């Protein structure tokens, strides 16, 4: 005899009454032992009760796999009470990963062919929940027959099961097309809602079904018009909106049918305008309908006037959800019809001050997208005002957007420089990595702004030395144009009288500040060294400061200080009556303007290119020592078009400098490796270029270049890579995480791959970024790399 066990209600009460987890486990283990014993005894009358208790135990998270075969027995039983629990157990305990689920295929087929509606409903629910592809192929014909059954209860469940079958086996779509056309005439709400869902699934997965159902667009338009004007039934209305669930499903289907199809779009334009105008947005139900309406208008080739009016006039008194929907719609529309969105610009700018973080972020993205050459001054003022008070999580995006807009639409160089300077002063460390390089290049290329720039930057530096990008630009500018700072003849700003001692004291304060980064101290140290050739006073103070950093713990600073001290020692004895040092002045002269063309080249590529030019260039006749030093300076700063290999130098002060800098000699470079395009989507393109340094043939340098030719910026870009275990991979930091629209400055990143065995290289890449306000993730493998990369 089987020991008596608890009823389901008693088991629930006892489990809930357990005071500790140990007591709960004890109760469940004891009851599971009774259930196992009952299953072994084969008690057919109480099997469904035992399985019901086991299902409750399973829902609490305890193992219940030993009840799977009992589910099959109960499904095969002729009693409805057994079938009900058996099908419920199959939905909870069985799935596609277990072969046991295939054993109930015949039972489901038999139950579907019976005329008992409750049994047919149970079988359909089970098939739609855990049916595998094999089960769907075997039972699709039976489900198709039930789509036209007279009972709405069975038809509704058969439609939902057909949706599951199409998702599992898209090839079976054709057998449901004739039935769907008839089901569109249904008046039953559940059947009609399920039919719209089924047609939507068919159109998304089958081009043939999409062409077939474009014929029913007028019928769908009529149904939606009836819903909007007269309503379907009062019992399905929510907050005064007539059947919003059915409206949303019809609008979603119309969006799919009208996409890239002029005739279908024209048939629904008037109705979409009516829905967008008359929908009550004071409740969430109306907001949902309006949201789907706006998405539909944006996706189909609708009239221009409808696109402009659909996002709503964005009243500030509207609920936050409505304004968010409107901002998202305008953000999508601005890529295709920029001028139409401009009339909403004042309200969009007002939304920047919203306390809701998501709303202000969308408003910021849209405000940046609205900037053009005609409104750049006004929009930049608004964005700069927002930058001063925006939350920290938006400051980096706002600063980056202002810099990109200024770079693309700056009316004058002076305005461009003032804008970057304001961003550096306000955003500080939140600015992009290339902001310092852009501003220094801008200043160097505008000779008429040299005096104005150095005075503005000196004044900003004197007020605040905590903003590191600002300090770096100011130190560079003071070092290059410090002589203009002391002249005091700039008419663009108020007269500024600066003494040499004040300039040196300010740079020393930067060097001694605990807030200064090592890179910032490097800028300041170089500025001091350059001022030694621009100031007419005694250089002893500069020499003392430079000598201090000869024992600095930072290797980069220490190396610079040692080299600068060497310049002082070797060339100070060669001064003429004017106390001028021609050799040191030639080395420390103003930097030449670097032309900006294409992506930035990584440091290793620069060194390799310089070495190649050094080895290929023919010797030239002897030149004065100052000219030789200029050539050396060009090699240090980067490859130059005019750089040539200098002739061998005799032991002299110039030759000593060559030994100090220790320039390496490189053999002739190998043939270039062709670049490779590995990714392209919606204007975003990723190219790979390759370099194998001659000295280390096992090393491969891959430069990843990301460009963007679309109308929207690519933000938060991350590129990750993986290689087989026989390789060694090192990823260096990218030049940024934002690729501006319309061919803006690309992102570059360097991969260093060591291939000691010289085996074919396979590279797996994962890209994540945001584009047009949507997150994108792509994972793909690159296995077609040129043979020159590994042979």
Automatic annotation (TrEMBL):
Location within or outside the cell: Cytoplasmic vesicle membrane; Endomembrane system; Golgi apparatus
The record's annotation in InterPro entries points to: Adaptor_Complx_Large_Subunit, AP1_complex_gsu, ARM-like, ARM-type_fold, Clathrin/coatomer_adapt-like_N, Clathrin_a/b/g-adaptin_app_Ig, Clathrin_app_Ig-like_sf, GAE_dom
Q: Could you name the domain of life of the organism this protein comes from?
A: Eukaryota
Identify the residues that the record assigns to the GAE domain, covering every copy.
671-786
GO biological process assignments: intracellular protein transport; vesicle-mediated transport
Q: Which UniProt keywords apply?
A: Cytoplasmic vesicle, Golgi apparatus, Membrane, Protein transport, Transport
Tell me the Pfam families matching this sequence: Adaptin_N, Alpha_adaptinC2
Disordered: where is this region? 599-622
Q: What is its main location?
A: membrane
Q: Name one GO cellular component term.
A: AP-1 adaptor complex
User: Which residues lie in coiled coils?
Assistant: none
Q: Does the keyword Protein transport apply?
A: yes
**SMART domains xref list:** Alpha_adaptinC2
Describe its membrane topology: Peripheral membrane protein
Family recorded in the similarity comment = Belongs to the adaptor complexes large subunit family.
Kindly provide the name given to this protein in its UniProt entry: AP-1 complex subunit gamma
Where does this protein come from, organism-wise?
Answer: Prolemur simus
Q: Upper taxonomic classification of the species?
A: Eukaryota, Metazoa, Chordata, Craniata, Vertebrata
């Amino acid at each position: 005899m089987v020991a008596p066990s608890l009823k389901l209600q008693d088991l629930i009460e006892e489990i809930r009454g357990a005071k500790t987890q140990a007591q709960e486990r004890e109760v469940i283990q004891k009851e599971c032992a009774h259930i196992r014993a009952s299953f072994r005894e084969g008690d057919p009358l109480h099997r469904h009760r035992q399985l019901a208790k086991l299902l409750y135990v399973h829902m609490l998270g305890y193992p219940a796999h030993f009840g799977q075969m009992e589910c099959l027995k109960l499904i095969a039983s002729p009693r409805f009470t057994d079938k009900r629990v058996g099908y419920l157990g199959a939905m909870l305990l069985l799935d596609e990963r277990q072969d046991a689920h295939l054993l109930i295929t015949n039972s489901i087929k038999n139950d579907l062919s019976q005329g008992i509606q409750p049994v047919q409903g149970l079988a359909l629910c089970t098939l739609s929940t855990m049916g595998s592809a094999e089960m769907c192929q075997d039972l699709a014909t039976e489900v198709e027959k039930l789509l036209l059954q007279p009972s709405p209860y069975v038809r509704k469940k058969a439609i939902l099961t057909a949706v599951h079958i199409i998702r599992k086996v898209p090839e079976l779509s054709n057998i449901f097309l004739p039935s769907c056309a008839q089901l569109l005439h249904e008046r039953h709400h559940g059947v009609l809602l399920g039919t719209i869902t089924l047609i939507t699934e068919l159109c998304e997965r089958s081009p043939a079904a999409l062409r077939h159902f474009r014929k029913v667009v007028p019928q769908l338009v009529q149904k939606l018009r009836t819903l909007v004007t007269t309503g379907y039934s009062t019992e399905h209305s929510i907050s005064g909106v007539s059947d919003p669930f059915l409206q949303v499903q019809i609008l979603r289907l119309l969006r799919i049918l009208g996409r890239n199809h002029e005739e279908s779009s024209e048939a629904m334009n008037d109705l979409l305008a009516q829905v967008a105008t008359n929908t009550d947005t004071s409740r969430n139900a109306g907001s949902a309908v309006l949201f789907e309406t706006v998405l539909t208008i944006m996706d189909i080739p609708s009239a221009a006037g409808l696109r402009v009016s659909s996002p709503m006039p964005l009243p500030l008194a509207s609920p936050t959800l409505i304004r968010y929907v409107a901002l998202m719609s305008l953000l999508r529309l601005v890529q295709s019809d920029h001028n139409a969105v401009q009339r909403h610009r004042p309200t969009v700018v007002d939304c920047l001050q919203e306390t809701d973080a998501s709303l202000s972020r969308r408003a910021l993205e849209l405000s940046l997208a609205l900037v053009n050459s005609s409104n750049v001054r006004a929009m930049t003022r608004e964005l700069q005002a927002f930058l001063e008070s925006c939350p920290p999580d938006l400051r980096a995006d706002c600063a980056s957007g202002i810099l990109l807009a200024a770079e693309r639409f700056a009316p004058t160089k002076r305005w461009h420089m003032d804008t970057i300077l304001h961003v550096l002063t306000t955003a500080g460390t939140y600015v992009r990595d290339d902001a310092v390089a852009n501003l220094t290049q801008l200043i160097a290329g505008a000779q008429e702004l040299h005096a104005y720039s150095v005075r503005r930057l000196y004044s900003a530096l004197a007020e605040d030395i905590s903003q590191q990008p600002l300090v770096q630009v100011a130190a560079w500018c003071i070092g290059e144009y410090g002589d203009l700072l002391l002249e005091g003849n700039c008419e663009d700003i108020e007269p500024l009288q600066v003494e040499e001692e004040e300039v040196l004291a300010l740079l020393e304060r930067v060097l001694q500040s605990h807030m200064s980064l090592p890179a910032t101290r490097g800028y300041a140290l170089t500025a001091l060294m350059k001022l030694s050739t621009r100031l007419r006073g005694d250089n002893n103070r500069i020499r003392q400061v430079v000598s201090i950093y000869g024992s600095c713990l930072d290797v980069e600073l220490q190396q610079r200080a040692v080299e600068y001290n060497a310049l002082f020692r070797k060339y100070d004895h060669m001064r003429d009556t004017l106390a001028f040092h021609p050799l040191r002045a030639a080395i420390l002269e103003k930097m030449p303007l670097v032309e900006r063309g294409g992506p930035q080249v990584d440091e290793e590529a620069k060194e390799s290119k310089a070495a190649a030019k050094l080895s290929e260039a023919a010797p030239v006749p002897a030149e004065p020592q100052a000219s030789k030093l200029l050539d050396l300076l060009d090699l240090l700063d980067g490859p130059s078009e005019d750089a040539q290999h200098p002739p061998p130098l005799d032991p002299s002060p110039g030759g000593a400098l060559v030994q100090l800098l220790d320039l390496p000699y490189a053999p002739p470079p190998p043939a270039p490796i062709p670049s490779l395009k590995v990714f392209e989507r919606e204007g975003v393109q990723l190219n790979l270029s390759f370099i194998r340094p001659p000295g280390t043939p096992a090393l491969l340098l891959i430069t990843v270049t990301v460009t963007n030719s679309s109308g929207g910026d690519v933000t938060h870009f991350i590129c990750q890579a993986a290689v087989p275990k026989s390789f060694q991979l090192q990823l260096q930091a990218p030049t940024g995480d934002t690729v501006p629209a319309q061919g803006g400055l690309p992102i570059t990143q360097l991969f260093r791959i060591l291939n000691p065995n010289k085996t074919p290289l396979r590279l797996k890449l994962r890209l994540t970024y945001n584009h047009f306000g949507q997150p994108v993730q792509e994972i793909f493998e690159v296995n077609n790399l040129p043979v020159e990369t590994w042979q």
